[in-house]
Amino acid sequence: MNAADKQWYLLYCKPRQELRAQQQLANQGYGSFLPQITQQKLRGNKWLQSTEPMFPRYLFLHLPVGQELNISAIRATRGISDFVRFGAQLARVPAALIQLLTEQQIQLKQQPQDTSLKKGDEISIVNGPFSGLQAVFSSADGDKRSSILISMLGQWVEAAVDNSQIAVKNNTGG
Fold first, then answer.
1. Domain-embedded: residue 84
2. Does the chain have fewer CB atoms within 10 Å around its N or its C terminus?
3. Gene3D superfamilies attached here (predicted)?
């Protein structure tokens, strides 16, 4: 059965209960989709990978066409607050959007993220205005940025860049 053969609905979950709600729905025989994203977070001067819902408190529910929707059973599910509604109408989500989110999640998982940068590590700048240049990691500058040193015209210049713009330099060879 493909995505076009399903009706997709949007559920609103209790705070930090998305995974619990998804498991409870599966126990009842319902399918769901919870897009997640893995991000780098700075905790106590150490970078850690944290996987979190892409849309906190929201969960996509699907039903095969023709299956009856038991609203009260779903609303009573642990972790679920209610259906997202527009007036009295339940919010339906186009199957094309679910397909797009699924593809995006797969692409994000295929992009390796190295979170073990230490001061002095050689890095490559993979995109942005300094793309292609080699640099040295200096320090973390919040959750999403880093301070780096770039060699320009024989001098070290400090710059702040988004973490998505840098990668650990591969040191292969002798």
1. yes
2. C
3. NusG, N-terminal domain
